[in-house]
């Protein structure tokens, strides 16, 4: 009985604090017929399309059938040096930065947002003795960064499209 009461109180506490399961942020996204146009940001476009489909949001097959048209463009990754070893002078830490831009418009051509910057970054350590492993880690981090950027795009779209 006490464990049941404890479990119920934990559930109530986590729901009251605004906690959401990963990927569940689109539950209130009540916009149908979004078209994601093929663009110069293929990784971000694929991830946004995947997350929208996973949330049960209907995607239009063409711009003519869509209520809203979203274009993701100018995707790029940058790797910046964050720290260098004082004794060897070799790089110890990098920062991966992902940049893209987003346009959104209504089907009638009215622009909702244009060239809105999407940016996400992650830091990672670099070990010269485990180069292959670190390159694999970097690729996994890039996937995670794109996933974060896609979530950022969806949150912005949710705010923009439900406000219109």
Q: What's the SSE blueprint?
A:
Blueprint: H1 2-16, E1 34-37, H2 42-54, E2 68-84, E3 91-106, E4 111-125, H3 131-163
Parallel strand pairs: 1-2
Antiparallel strand pairs: 2-3, 3-4
User: Structural class, please?
Assistant: alpha+beta
Measured by DSSP, the beta-strand proportion falls in: 25-35%
CATH architecture: 2-Layer Sandwich
Oligomer: single chain
The description of the largest β-sheet is: 4 strands, mixed
Helix content: 25-40%
CATH superfamily: Lipoprotein like domain
Calculate the mean pLDDT score and round it: 82
Could you name the ranges where pLDDT drops below 50 across 5 or more consecutive residues? none
Rg, rounded, reads 20 Å
* Count of alpha/pi helices: 3
* Number of DSSP-assigned strands: 4
Topology order in helix (H) and strand (E) letters: HEHEEEH
State the shape: flat
CATH topology label? Double Stranded RNA Binding Domain
Q: How far apart are the first and last residues' alpha carbons, in Å?
A: 49 Å
CATH class: Alpha Beta
Write a structural description:
The longest helix has 33 residues, at 131-163. The model has no long low-confidence stretch (mean pLDDT 82). The protein is built from three helices and four strands. It has a four-stranded mixed β-sheet. It is of the alpha+beta class. The chain has helices at 2-16, 42-54, 131-163; strands spanning 34-37, 68-84, 91-106, 111-125.
